[in-house]
Amino acid sequence: MSKRKLSRQQRWRIEKIQAERARRAEKRGEQDADRLAAGEYGPERPGRVTAHFGRTLDVAPDKGDEPVRCHLRANLEGLVTGDRVVWRAGQDGSGVVVARGERDNVLERPDARGQLKPVAANIDQLLIVFAVEPAPHANLIDRYLVAAEATGIAPVLVLNKVDLLPSRGGELRELLGRYEALGYPVVTTTTAREGGLDALYRRLAGRTSVFVGQSGVGKSSLIDRLLPDENLRIGALSEDSRKGRHTTTTARLYAMACGGELIDSPGIREFGLTHLEERQVAEGFIEFRAHLGHCRFRDCRHRHEPGCALLAAVEHGDIHPDRFASYRRIVDSLEES
Ligand SMILES: Nc1nc2c(ncn2[C@@H]2O[C@H](COP(=O)(O)OP(=O)(O)OP(=O)(O)O)[C@@H](O)[C@H]2O)c(=O)[nH]1
Ligand SMILES: [Zn+2]
């Protein structure tokens, strides 16, 4: 409908609504200005959420700074650990978060009802930890990689307990070589030897990381070494839980001595294959991407279809048969669930 066709009454109503909006915005601005003038809140500053409990957040003004306990301005929702925010300091040592910055990415986990909920944001890398013992199945590594690819967060493979590796490296080294050839960074670690984490420190420096992986691979052992004063922090956590907060599911952002930041919670470590579409699984195998969309049938499921570009790529040695078998297993497991 063109403007000209609006009746006088409609025009009047629209003008009235707009005037009301402008008046309210002005009033809000005045209130903020008043408070600022009265010294109630300091100027706007950047910060990053290091923990959150409902509408209360901890915000670190800068890397490694002691966080400031903040509340959320009424119109803000859904902030998570790792979010970049704009906040203002109050006089009593607390603060108010007034805006959320753009997110590079967000890590989601299913809640009790199976619905995906964001738990952390702005993560540079997902460190997928596996170990010489319990030995990883290639399919398990692929599952993690597919899930990581679906989040858009760069995965890094961390092989821990290399002190248990036979001197020649054996099959596991060969397997890792295959992932390196696909372009995935691989880092080896051991907590059993001096200097066993040096390569990991270099990987962590200057980035925000999350550790994930199967039980028993050594995540806690690694994180204990990265956060030697974590006991203090665990103390802080139990203090929060006495107040009845759900701290066990709260992700926290820690500054590490090696210069990087770590986001961790028990829930995050269990990150795995969530609800994915068959398409996403295929796209999660990075070497498949060049071939996707080239099958004869648009709805090809890459099983026995004639003219399937993926099957042809396996035939020509462009896709490793183990990776293709792994893809099949993951797709089949989606159907079962
Ligand atoms: N030999 C050897 N053992 C290690 C190494 N790192 C960890 N371990 C041992 O592996 C076992 C499991 O380590 P955790 O750190 O508890 O593993 P986790 O991944 O945190 O396991 P969950 O808490 O079950 O998720 C422990 O007995 C550790 O002492 C390592 O580099 N070499
Ligand atoms: Zn196909």
Automatic annotation (TrEMBL):
Keywords: Cytoplasm, Endosome, GTP-binding, Hydrolase, Metal-binding, Nucleotide-binding, Protein transport, Ribosome biogenesis, RNA-binding, rRNA-binding, Transport, Zinc. Residues 20-49 are annotated as: Disordered. GTP binds at N160, K161, V162, D163, G213, Q214, S215, G216, V217, G218, K219, S220, S221. It is found in: Cytoplasm; Endosome. GO terms for cellular component: bounding membrane of organelle; cytoplasmic vesicle membrane; membrane protein complex. Its cofactor is Zn(2+). GO terms for biological process: protein transport; ribosomal small subunit biogenesis. It comes from the Bacteria. Residues 1-31 form the VPS37 C-terminal domain. It holds the Pfam family RsgA_GTPase. It is an enzyme of class 3 (hydrolase). Its EC number is 3.6.1.-. Residues 121-269 form the EngC GTPase domain. Binds 1 zinc ion per subunit. Zn(2+) binds at C295, C300, H302, C308. Residues 20-47 have a biased composition (Basic and acidic residues). InterPro entries: G_CP_dom, Mod_r, NA-bd_OB-fold, P-loop_NTPase, Ribosome_biogen_GTPase_RsgA, RsgA_GTPase_dom. One of several proteins that assist in the late maturation steps of the functional core of the 30S ribosomal subunit. Helps release RbfA from mature subunits. May play a role in the assembly of ribosomal proteins into the subunit. Circularly permuted GTPase that catalyzes slow GTP hydrolysis, GTPase activity is stimulated by the 30S ribosomal subunit. Monomer. Associates with 30S ribosomal subunit, binds 16S rRNA. Belongs to the TRAFAC class YlqF/YawG GTPase family. RsgA subfamily. PANTHER family: SMALL RIBOSOMAL SUBUNIT BIOGENESIS GTPASE RSGA, SMALL RIBOSOMAL SUBUNIT BIOGENESIS GTPASE RSGA 1, MITOCHONDRIAL-RELATED. HAMAP family: GTPase_RsgA. This is Small ribosomal subunit biogenesis GTPase RsgA. It comes from Halomonas cerina. The gene is rsgA.
